[in-house]
Structures are given as C-alpha cells and as structure tokens.
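Per your request, structure below.
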C-alpha cells in the first residue's frame, strides 16, 4: 500500500484538524468505538473525474420515498504529487463536486476506524470470510454502505435517527443502517493485520460541495466500456442473386432486443446497398458483458425473411460484425410445361416426347414478353419434352444453354425472381409447330414469405398442339369365281393399332364403316398414326379378310385398299378320350354317328372294289380316332356315341360342334375340325366295416348293494379305426396308353399305398373311384379304447360290361376292448408299515356314459367297497370301462386319525398295443397329538409355575402338571371327538386367575394346541381440547373498517397427540420385560366431536403427551402434558388420568404495494378495498358475512404500501384497486388472497398483493403522405388546451416519438417546420383518454412540387412571342411535358416533383430538368440550347415552387440584296446582340450551378 508522507501545514489548519479530531473522539464515544488517530496533510487535491450516479433505488429492493432519488458517486482525485486515487463522498446531503474542484484542507487517517471502514468494504478485506460483513452484497451496495459508514464515523451523517429503516436488502432482514453499524463495529475493533490502509479526508470551507474520503489503497471501481455491433446482410445463394436486378441487399431491417423472447425492442438498423448497417453501441462495466438478441424483421428486395433469433455477447470495446444470410426468393419448381393435344383432336400415334422449347429468362417482372419492349434475355435455354409431353426443370430435359441455371441448397434446379418466356421451336412426331410465346413470372409474396411462379403453361388449357390428320377408304369384293362381285354391307372396325383393340382406342382414333351397294366405304379424318382394319360383318360363308395396318403419316392424305373373301369347309376328325386321364383311349371299337343341324344322319358314298358304298357310322382304330372321307361345309353338327370300348361306360350324350373358320385345327399342314368324346372308365368301390365290444349297461337294480352291481358290454360299430389300402398287383389305366419306354401307364404299382380309410360313427369306411384290380386292406390304427387287429384281407375288383359303371366289394374287421385294474396300499404315516382294517370306496369321478350316449352311472356314485388286508392291500375287482375314478377312506383304522385324501384314478386309453390299464396308489394314517401352554395375555410369553389339570367329560383327571416356560406339555392318543377341560388350579404371582378352557379332540394327525392366558391391570388417559372460533361480525358504518369479527371458545375435534412413556414400563411376570422405554412413543390419539381424546389398555406406569397436530385455524401447542397411571392392586383392573388444554387461533395480516408498471417506483395515494371471496361462516354453519362484501379500504403511503388492520378469520379474500393515483390508469387486476390455514407453526399469515399502474402513452408519427415512412427533420410541438407547449422534438427517420404520462384532455400537434422537400402540415387536434393502450397521433406531409414558367420574347424588340414549342425532359431524356407559349409569350408546365428522396423519406438530391425548344415561331431562328432548370426548395415550404426561365428568339434575317450594305450591318448587329444574350444566359446558368 502506498503511504502518504507527513507534510508541514499552517497553524490555522492544524487548529481546524485538532477540532475535527476532538469531534471524532466525541462521535466515537457516542457510538461505542475508540477515538480515531488522524494527522494533517498538506497540498491541493483536485477532482479529476466523477463516475455515473449509483442509485439507491436500483441497489436496494425496498426504499423509503424520502430516499427514492438518492444516489452517490465515486471520484477520481489527484494528490499534490499528481498521483490519482479513488474517493468516496464523506458528507451526504451536499452538492456533488464537479471535475476540476480543488480541496485545500486534508487529513490523513492510517489504520484507524475511518481507513478500515473502506478497507473492510471496498479494499482488500471486503470478501474476508470472517470480517467481510458486506461480502454477499453487490459492489453498488458496498459503495453506498461505505459512503454512509465513513460519514457516520466522521460525524457527518444522521441516518441512524432519520432513516434507520429506509432501505431493505431483498429478502434479507438486514437494512442499510444495520449494515453500517456492523461495518462500523468491525472497523473500530478489527485490525487489518499485515495490511496498511490510509484515507485522506479532503475538505474546503470555501465551497458547499461534498467532502471526500480519498482511499490510498488500490480500489478500482468499474470502468464503463462501449461495445458495438453492426450487421452484414448477405445472400445465401449468390449464384441466384448476384448481378440480378430483382434482388438488392439494401433495405433489410435488423431488430435488436434485450431478451431472447424479443419483446423488448432496443433499436432497428437498416442495411445499405452494400448490405451493411450502421453500428449499434451499448455500454457496460468492465468485466461484465451485455447479451443482445437480434433477428431480421424486414427482408431486402427479393429475399425471404430470416427470422431466426440469434444472440451476441459484447464484453469489450471491440466492434463486431454479425453476418445474416437471407435466401434469395426462388422457386424450385419441377414442371415447366405440360404439352397436350388440342381440344377436339385425337392424338393417334403422335408422340409428345421430343418437342423442343426455347426458354428465356429476364431479370425483370413483366406481364408481356419482355422482348417486345426490346429487352434482351439474361439467359436462354432449350428444353425437350418427355413421353408425357412434360418439361421439368432438370438436367435430363435440358438440350443446350446451362448458363444461369442454378440449384438451391437441396440440389434442385430453381427459378430466380423474374420473367421467363417459353416458345416451341421444334414440334414432336405427328404434330404441327405451335409458335405461341408463354410468359410466366416468379414473384415473392413478402406477406407470407413465400415464392410462387405464375402463368406457366402447365394446366389443361395450355400448350395445346394440333396433329396431322388423314382418311382411309375400302373397296370390297367376294372371291371364289373369275368374276368379282362387289360385297355390300361388309362392316369394318378401323382403330389405332397401338390401342390394342377397337374398344380401347380413343373415340377420335377409331370408326366403324360399312360398304355401300358398290362395296365402297371411307372413314372420317383420323389423327396421325398406324391403324388396324378389322372386318366384323360380311357373308358368313366366306372368310373375313385378314387384319391389315395402314399408317397415316401425311396431313390431309387418303389411303385406299381393295379386298376380297374365300369359302369355308373342313374334314372332321373324331377322337375317343378317357374322362379321367384326358388321354386318347388307344382301344379300337368305339362307334360314332354324325347328324346335321336338321337332325339328318350324315353319310358318304365311296368307291370300293365292290363298287359304290354308303358309310353312315364311323369306328375308331387302335389309336382311338377316325376321319370323315369328305369335307363338311360351314355349319352346326352333332356327334353321337353308339358303342364304348372295353373297360369304359357308354355315354350316349350328343356332342354339338361347329364347322367354321374359327373352329378348325391345323396339324402337320392338314386342317380339320376336331371333335372329342370322353367316356368314364369303370371303377370299383370298397367298404370296410369295424366292430368291437362296447359298454352297454350297469346292472343290479336301484336298491342292490354296489358290490353286487356290474358293467355289461355288447358288440357295436366302432368309429375312428384307420385302414390302409394297398395295390395287391400292378393296376393299369384303361386307356391303354404307354410311357416313353413303351410300358403301359399304371395307376398303382404292386404294394403301393392307394388310400387311407377311417371308420365313421356307423363303423364303416368306403373307398370310391378305385381302378379295377386286386387290393390288400390292413388296420393301422385301432379305435380309441381298443386293441389293434393285426390280420390283413385281400379283395379283387373285376370289369362286368359298359352298362355297369361301378363294381362293389366289402370287408369286416373286429377288435378287443382295453381292460382296467385298480388297487390301493394302506400304510402307517410314522412307521410306513401296512395297516389292516381301513375301509375304502371307489367312486365315479365323472358320469359314465354307454355307447349310445346314455348316462348309466352318475358322477360321485359309489361303485365298490374294499377293506385293507393284512398286507394293507385294497383291490377293486369289477370289469371297469376306461374312465375317471377316485378312491377315499370311508373308515379309519382304530387309533388313527382319518385321512381325507382322495386318490384319483384316470384310466385313460394307453394305446392300441396295451391290453390292460393297471393303476395303484399309497394311503397313510397318523395318531392324535396335543400340546398345552401357559402364557402372559399381554405379550404371549411362556409362564412358569401355574398348576394345570386336564379332566375328561366325566370329570376324571387325565393329567396334572406345573407349567414350565421352557417347553409345552404333551398328551397323545386322546379320543377323537371327545371333549376335555383344562383348568388353572393356581395362577403365577401377579396375575389374575384364568377361566377354564374346554377343548374337543379333532380328527387330525396334526399337533393340536391349547393355550391358557393370564391378564394384568391396565390404564387409560383422557384429554379435553378447546380453542377460539369466529361467532359473528359487528357492522361499523362510516369507518374504513366495515366489520369487526367476534370470537368465542369451543371444544376442538381432530387435534392429535402423541403419547410417550415417561419412565421404563416393565412387565409384571418377574422377567422385567420392557414394554416401553422412557421416551418411547406409545400411540397417537385424536380428539372427537366433544374435543376429547383418549387411550386405553395401557400397562401401568407414568406417561406424558405432546400435541403433534392441531386442526385448521389453530397454532400447535407442543408443551408436554404428564399422565400418571401407576399400578394400584390386583383387584383394580383400570387406572385413569385426565386433563384440559387450550389452543390459540391463527391470525391474518394482508398488505398491498403499489408501483409504476414501467419505472417500478412506488406510488402513493392508491385506494384499495379488501373483499370476501366466499361466504364467511361461523362454527354453526351460519353465514355472518356474504361473499364479495367489502371488509375494509386503505390508502397507500409514501412507500407505496398499506396494511389492512381487520382481525380476520381464515378464508379466501381478494384485493382490488378502488381509485388509481393521479396520472395513472386504474388497474383492473383483482388479486386473490389465500388466507386459508397455513400450517400449525404459523402464528400470523402475512400476505402481500402487488399492483402496478400503467401510465398513459401517446405515440406520434410523422410520415409522408403514404403513411409508410417516418420522416426525419420535422420540428413538432404538442400544445395543451391552454396553449402551453407540453413538449417539442425533431422527428427521426424510421422512428416514432412517444410522450408518457400525459394528463387526460385535448391537445394540438403542430409542425413548426417541415423536413426539406415537404409542405408544412396543418395542425392535428387530438384528445387523450384514460386507457392502457398506446394512443397514436399521425401527421402526414406532402412532398413539395413545382412548375417551370417560360417567358419568350423577341431578342431585338423584347416583344412576347406566341407559338414557340418547348419540351421538358428528365435526366434520361424522357419527355415529361410539352409547352406552347401564348400570345404573351407565356407557358407553364404541369406540377413536377422538385427532388428525389431516400428510402427513409428524407431529401436525397434536387431534380434537374432540361428545357429544350423544339419548334420556333414563324420568322424566328430555333434556339437549340438545352437549359438546366432546378426547382429549389425554400425553408418557408411554399405550396408550389416556381422557376421562371426567360428566353429570347432571334428573327430570321432577310436575304440581302446586291449592293445593300445596310442590311449587312443590321444583321451583324443582330448577331452581336444574340451572342451577348447567349453569353449572359450561360453565365447565369453557371452562377446557379455554383449556388447549388
């Protein structure tokens, strides 16, 4: 630490320092601290700088109104040596010194209270773990506390008296004064250790500024830094936007916010043409940082808005540039064009594929072809259509010209904003060229941030194309003779071949035509393509012509064809087929007859060696077929079979067939009509029958002993038997067909499995459709419950004749029934030896049903009894059928307990190879067993010393013994069913004698227990609980408190107590068993409706109670309550203890705080009302105050707070504002106050409702006449109804002006001066109402206009010239107006704009107009000079700015005559005058330009 050297000082200043030291000593005595040690210092101290004000309002969470505007500063002070240190104000309530203030008096304090105040608050010791009392507070709070504590230490502050409770630190209970006292105490008593600390106290009696405590320790208050950020807008796809006039980076708006939700707007920046905005700057302390959130709120021209919220953190004075990429508007369309056949025309075989379109792109937006206006395309491409006539924006459709085609970020080709034209330059196959130019636009809809391309030729009405069309004609003749005859009424279907059929062809590509009397027909106009000509009608005795194809390949051409027919006739081939195999029957001897469609038999005459012979029947050969000897003409015929071949059944059913060109068969060059007749081969049928022994009856009569009844059986049909049928020899097909090796085809080889049969309910199974031959039958699976029959049988199926279709044979098989054997073994449960004499019964476990489904034995019927022999064996000997049975003991052996166990026998079928089912089981019996015990009834412990006796039913003593706690007493083999008595002769000491116990021996082998218990004396504790509850309310009129609530005492139910042992509670059994240890919790008890809680059946001893839960509305009283229920004597069963206890009810305190919604400053004078939210009901259920009743009203004080004073019962309330403070809108907020019970440890419920008032706000906008742009540079004033100026300001570009807290009333907005280039607007009168909405006032300025006036005179005479024509042109030479001077030589233009404006509406530059004379008056020379005219704006903003141009014309000279020198001089003079005028005009123009 730097120390200040001691210096010589004047005696006068030493006297002052001595007085100050005495004053400090007195202050130290008053505050209880040691006197400070000080020494005078010399030299001038100068204030070099003053920090920003540290606000009490911001540093503290709660503050007195009197201190709401308080603040302090940190100073930089240079000492006499020029070194600079930090300083604090040491005298509150004085003026703050400014930079340059000098102090001549100084006192040095080293390692004393004043110096240590700063050491422990702002110096190296501020964060000391033990003595840094301010280490948990912010630097602003530490500065304020140090400032006041230094002042207190030096006697310059009376905070401890006037403002002792003014400042609270958040939720901390400490307030500002308390922290000062803590810091002062540490500074007065705690040394800084090895650290030296020095404070120079500087003052000066010559000025009234604050005195300063200069801290010579290094103390660095925060340094204010300024960070800056600007934004750079760039294109996300420069390949689209660069060099394209549809895009610009100028005009993007980036909004900056303080929060991530973007609700607190700080500023909005606009990009320029280079894409950069201005810098936005903000300040923060060194070591801190500021996080800004930003997003684009307006996209530049042609770009999609990028509204992503991003952030940047500024932590230094560097300048940052954040780049925001915008996607240039583009449309990744897929379909550019859809080409289709024109309406009313067919497409035929035309191909939409291959058409070529030239596509041109222009970087302008135009509704017509831009080329018409002379614009040149930026890019030109040629695309080719696909098979559907589509052109997609893709590589495989592009023919030439890839320049300018760009892809978006997903890799798809896309269209930039602009105009494209599409025109067909090559027609596809079969079409005429369509030279229509289609114009489409790709535009950006900024409203919904989307891009769309309009007017592309992609709908059904666009890009229609016309195909080639022609006709087809036919000339038809009949053939078969040398003279050709025309065939009328021949019908032809002509259709597009590619369609595949007439019906599938489009209507415009097909037609049915019919020949006329001359055999001629012609089609309509058909579109380009190849057509099929197909005859559908004609003379049915002749072949129709074959289909042919004709191609229409030229537009408007006719294609002609000549056609003729041939007659139809064929031979008949008759073939015999096997109906099963489908093969030809290679057996001779089948005879057929033929009949025509009139039923006449057909015959043929043939020449033989015997002469002419008639044949009318036809017999097949060994190949199974026969031919007619002559052809049959086209027509319908019938074939009839009259004889079948061997092995087949005759089928006389006629076979209809047709001779036609559609029914013939071609085979090896021969053409014939094939007629096939199928016969079925004769088959066999084999039936197998299965029989066996089935259950019939259970005989013996209703009253016969079960042992005398028995089951009877009879022979019956058996279902479920499975047989396999095998071929006993090779079995051949009847059609005599052979395989490729020459062997006859077989149905089955010898030994091959033919079929499997399963018998049905009738015991039969049948195999049908067996080829004739020898078969073997074998049983492979017996029916359920039967034994398999191993014997096989053989049968032969033999052909009879062609009238017998089926040969029948039958076989019968018989089976044996599976038998049942059941038995039980009886054993001793302990010795496992056989036990004789046990009687068992066998029962039906289910109904037993005979073969007819009749129940012959019901479930649980006793079927047989049997007694165990000396070997313990029990056998059931009847002939039982398969089924479910169970056996159980009917009578136990003597000396044993019966056993209820049931033995289940399931005599299920065990397979076809088992003759008998054998089932057996074991059964055990146990002796009876008793154990006797004596226990304590309270804890179940075994007792020693009780004398006990067991007596039988006649009172005879069975056994007597003395109880032993170590083991139970055992008696075995007591008689089952007998009743005995256990009697206590003498009880143990300390117990009551128990009553007799009677018990009966149960039939069980388990150990049976008899337990006798003794009782001890018990105790009970009873508590009565009451408390205060609301009874009614007293109304008080004309008071701020409308009601006073009254309360009375009532018993309380539901209060909970825990019961504890005060001492160890021991058993009286002599074992000193501890029931409860001292302090153990015994139980929990709750008061009933009478307010009483009790606990009974306690062991005798001393206890205490603690209340653990009270009822809602009351405070818990956990004071221990003692209860003594010690043992009295053995004849006293219950000992009692009782007491009364009262609870306090829970209180309610409700307060309100009122603040400004924006500044958060507290507000005085707000009136609030406290209301009931629900009915207030007393304990009897009576409503004493209704819901929504006002209980009390109160007014906020200077601290913005108020507390309601009513003694409220618990319940639901609400607070609302009745009157707002002056200048604010009354809050419509209603705050519910939940004053319901808050738990038993809260004595007073303290609730605070926070309200805010919104100030009135008015937003003023100064815009151009469109209302879209906020104009800069207008001077505006708001004037109240009394003519006083409320506020004046200069408008800013893009930013409205807001005035807050305007009183309600009428005002006038006046424009004192307009922005350059605008007219002054008329006053706007407006009225302010009480509303939380921002009220808007808009004033619009019109742009200033002007006109150009021309005065035209004769340059010689000065006379006005009429008829001179002028043009007014812009800088690009465009004619804006044409003027003609009147007889006064006067002409004026239309109204013209005077200047151009920036995008924000501000003045940019003057407009220069050019005045050119285009036609001179008759007799005058045309003045070809171009005059530059500027309509200059003046500050008085006239309605119209006029600029007058005075011009002259020179008369045309007369042609001089020979020798007329006078004329020459005259014209020379005129030329000199004209030259002078022109020079003067040029000089005037230069003068104006210099002024501009």
């Amino acid at each position: 630490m730097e120390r200040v050297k001691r210096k010589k000082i004047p005696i006068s200043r030493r006297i002052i320092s001595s007085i100050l030291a005495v004053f400090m000593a007195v202050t130290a005595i008053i505050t209880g601290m040691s006197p400070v040690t000080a020494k005078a210092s010399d030299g001038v101290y100068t204030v070099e700088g003053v920090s920003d004000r540290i606000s009490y309002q911001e540093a503290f969470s709660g503050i007195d109104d009197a201190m709401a505007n308080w603040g302090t500063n940190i100073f930089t002070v240079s000492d006499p040596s020029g070194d600079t240190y930090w300083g604090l104000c040491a005298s509150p309530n004085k003026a703050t010194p400014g930079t340059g203030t000098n102090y001549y008096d100084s006192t040095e304090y080293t390692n004393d209270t004043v110096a240590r105040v700063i050491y422990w608050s702002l110096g190296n010791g501020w964060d000391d773990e033990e003595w840094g009392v301010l280490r948990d507070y912010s630097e602003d709070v530490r500065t304020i506390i140090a400032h006041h504590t230094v002042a207190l230490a030096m006697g310059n502050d009376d905070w401890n008296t006037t403002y002792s409770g003014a400042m609270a630190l958040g939720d901390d209970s400490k307030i500002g004064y308390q922290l000062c006292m803590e810091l002062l105490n540490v500074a007065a008593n705690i040394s800084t250790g090895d650290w030296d600390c020095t404070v120079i106290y500087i003052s000066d009696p010559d000025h009234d500024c604050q005195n300063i405590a200069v801290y010579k320790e290094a103390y660095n208050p925060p340094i204010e830094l300024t960070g800056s950020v600007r934004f750079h807008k760039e294109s996300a796809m420069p390949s689209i936007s660069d060099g394209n006039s549809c895009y610009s980076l100028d005009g993007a708006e980036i909004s900056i916010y303080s929060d991530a939700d973007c609700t607190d707007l700080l500023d909005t920046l606009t990009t320029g043409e280079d894409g950069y905005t201005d810098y936005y700057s903000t300040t923060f302390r060194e070591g801190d940082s500021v996080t800004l959130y930003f997003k684009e709120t307006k996209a530049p021209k042609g770009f999609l808005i990028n509204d992503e919220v991003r952030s940047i953190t500024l932590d230094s004075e560097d300048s940052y540039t954040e780049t925001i990429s915008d996607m240039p508007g583009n449309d990744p369309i897929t379909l550019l064009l859809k080409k289709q056949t024109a309406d009313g025309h067919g497409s035929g075989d035309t191909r939409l594929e291959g058409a070529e379109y030239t596509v041109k792109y222009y970087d302008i937006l135009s509704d017509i072809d831009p080329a018409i206006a002379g614009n040149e395309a930026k890019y030109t491409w040629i695309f080719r259509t696909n098979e559907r006539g589509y052109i997609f924006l893709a590589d495989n459709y592009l023919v030439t010209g890839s320049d300018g085609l760009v892809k978006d970020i997903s890799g798809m080709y896309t269209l930039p904003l602009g105009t494209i034209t599409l025109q067909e330059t090559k027609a596809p196959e079969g079409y005429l060229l369509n030279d229509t130019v289609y114009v489409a636009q790709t535009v950006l809809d900024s409203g919904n941030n989307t891009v769309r391309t309009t007017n592309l030729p992609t709908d059904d009405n666009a890009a229609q194309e016309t195909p080639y069309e022609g006709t087809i004609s036919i000339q038809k003749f009949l053939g078969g003779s040398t003279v050709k005859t025309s065939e009328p009424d021949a019908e032809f279907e002509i259709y597009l071949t590619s369609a595949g059929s007439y019906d599938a062809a489009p209507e415009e590509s097909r037609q049915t035509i019919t020949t006329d009397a001359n055999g001629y027909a012609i089609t309509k106009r058909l579109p380009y393509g190849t057509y099929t000509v197909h005859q559908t009608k004609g003379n049915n005795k002749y072949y129709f012509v074959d289909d042919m194809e004709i191609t229409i390949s030229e537009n408007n051409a006719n294609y002609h064809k000549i056609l003729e027919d041939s007659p139809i006739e064929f031979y008949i081939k008759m073939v015999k087929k096997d109906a099963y195999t489908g093969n030809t029957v290679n057996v001779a001897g089948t005879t057929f007859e033929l009949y025509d469609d009139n039923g006449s038999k057909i015959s043929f005459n043939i020449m033989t060696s015997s002469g002419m012979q008639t044949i009318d029947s036809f017999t097949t050969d060994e190949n199974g077929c026969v031919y007619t000897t002559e052809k049959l003409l086209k027509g319908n015929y019938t074939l009839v079979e009259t004889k079948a071949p061997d092995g087949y059944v005759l089928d006389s059913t006629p076979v209809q067939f047709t001779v036609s060109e559609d029914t013939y068969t071609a085979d090896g060059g021969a053409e014939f009509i094939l007629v096939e007749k199928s016969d079925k081969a004769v088959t066999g049928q084999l039936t197998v029958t299965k029989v066996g022994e089935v259950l019939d009856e259970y005989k013996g009569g209703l009253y016969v002993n079960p042992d005398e009844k028995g089951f009877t059986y009879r022979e019956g049909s058996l279902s479920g038997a499975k047989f396999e049928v095998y071929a006993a020899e090779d079995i051949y097909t009847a059609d005599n067909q052979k395989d490729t090796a020459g062997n006859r085809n077989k149905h089955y080889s010898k030994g091959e499995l033919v079929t499997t049969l399963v018998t049905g309910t009738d015991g039969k199974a049948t195999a049908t459709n067996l080829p004739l031959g020898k078969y073997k039958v074998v049983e492979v699976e017996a029916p359920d419950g039967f034994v398999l029959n191993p014997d096989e049988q053989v049968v032969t199926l033999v052909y009879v004749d062609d009238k017998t279709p089926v040969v029948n044979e039958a076989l019968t098989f018989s089976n044996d029934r599976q038998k049942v054997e059941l038995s039980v073994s009886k054993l001793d449960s302990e010795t496992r030896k056989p036990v004789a004499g046990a009687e068992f019964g066998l029962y039906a476990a289910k109904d037993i049903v005979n073969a007819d489904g009749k129940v012959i034995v019901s479930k649980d019927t006793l079927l047989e009894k049997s007694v165990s022999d000396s070997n313990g064996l029990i056998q059931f000997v009847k002939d039982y059928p398969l089924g479910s049975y169970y056996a159980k003991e009917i009578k136990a052996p003597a000396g044993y307990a019966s056993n209820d166990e049931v033995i289940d026998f399931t005599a299920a079928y065990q397979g076809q190879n088992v003759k008998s089912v054998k089932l057996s089981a074991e059964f055990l019996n146990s002796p009876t067993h008793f154990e006797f015990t004596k226990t304590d009834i309270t804890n179940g412990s075994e007792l020693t010393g009780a004398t006990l006796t067991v007596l039988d039913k006649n009172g005879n003593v069975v056994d007597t013994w003395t109880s032993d706690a170590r083991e139970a007493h055992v008696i075995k083999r007591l008689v089952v069913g007998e009743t005995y008595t256990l009697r206590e002769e003498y009880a143990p000491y300390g117990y009551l004698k128990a009553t007799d116990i009677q018990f009966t021996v149960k039939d069980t082998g388990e150990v049976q227990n008899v337990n006798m218990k003794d009782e001890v004396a018990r105790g009970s504790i009873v508590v009565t609980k009451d408390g205060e509850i609301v009874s009614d309310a007293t109304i008080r009129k004309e008071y701020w408190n409308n009601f006073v609530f009254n309360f009375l005492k009532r018993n309380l139910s539901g209060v909970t107590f825990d019961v504890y042992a005060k001492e160890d509670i021991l058993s009286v059994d002599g074992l000193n068993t501890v029931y409860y240890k001292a302090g153990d919790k015994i139980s929990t008890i709750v008061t009933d409706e009478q307010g009483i809680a009790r606990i009974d059946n306690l062991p005798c001893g001393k206890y205490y109670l603690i209340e653990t839960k009270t009822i809602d509305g009351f405070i818990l009283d956990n004071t221990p309550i003692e209860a003594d229920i010690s043992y009295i004597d053995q004849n006293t069963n219950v000992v009692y203890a009782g007491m009364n206890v009262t609870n306090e009810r829970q209180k309610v305190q409700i307060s309100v705080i009122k603040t400004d919604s924006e500044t958060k400053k507290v507000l005085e004078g707000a009136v609030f009302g406290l209301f009931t939210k629900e009915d207030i009901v007393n304990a009897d259920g009576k409503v004493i105050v209704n819901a929504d009743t006002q209980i009390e009203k109160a007014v906020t004080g200077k601290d913005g707070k108020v507390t309601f004073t009513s003694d409220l019962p618990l319940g639901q309330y609400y607070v609302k504002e009745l009157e707002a403070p002056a200048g604010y809108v009354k809050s419509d907020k209603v705050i519910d106050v939940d004053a319901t019970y808050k738990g038993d440890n809260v004595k007073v419920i303290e609730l605070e409702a926070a309200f805010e008032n919104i100030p009135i706000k008015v937003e003023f906008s100064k815009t151009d006449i469109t209302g879209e742009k906020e104009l800069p540079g207008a001077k505006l004033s708001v004037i109240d109804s009394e003519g006083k100026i409320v506020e004046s300001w200069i408008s800013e570009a893009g930013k409205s002006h807001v005035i807050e807290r305007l009183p309600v009333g009428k005002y006038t907005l006046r424009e004192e001066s307009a922005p350059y280039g605008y007219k002054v607007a008329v006053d706007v009168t407006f009225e302010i109402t009480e509303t939380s909405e921002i009220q808007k006032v808009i004033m619009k300025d019109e742009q200033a206009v002007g006109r150009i006036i021309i005065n035209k005179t004769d340059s010689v005479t000065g006379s006005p010239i009429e008829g001179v024509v002028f043009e007014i042109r812009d800088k690009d030479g465009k004619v804006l107006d044409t003027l003609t001077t009147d007889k006064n030589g006067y002409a004026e233009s239309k109204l013209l704009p005077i200047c151009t404006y920036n995008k924000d509406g501000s003045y940019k530059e003057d407009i220069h107009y050019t005045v050119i004379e285009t036609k001179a008056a008759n007799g005058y020379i045309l003045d070809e000079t171009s005059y530059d005219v500027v309509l200059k704006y003046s500050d008085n903003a006239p309605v119209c700015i006029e600029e007058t141009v005075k011009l002259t014309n020179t008369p045309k000279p007369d042609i001089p005559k020979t020798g007329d020198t006078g004329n020459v001089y005259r014209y020379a003079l005129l030329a000199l005058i004209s030259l002078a005028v022109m020079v003067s005009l040029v000089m005037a123009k230069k003068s104006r330009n210099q002024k501009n």
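The two ends are 67 Å apart (CA to CA).

Regards,
D.
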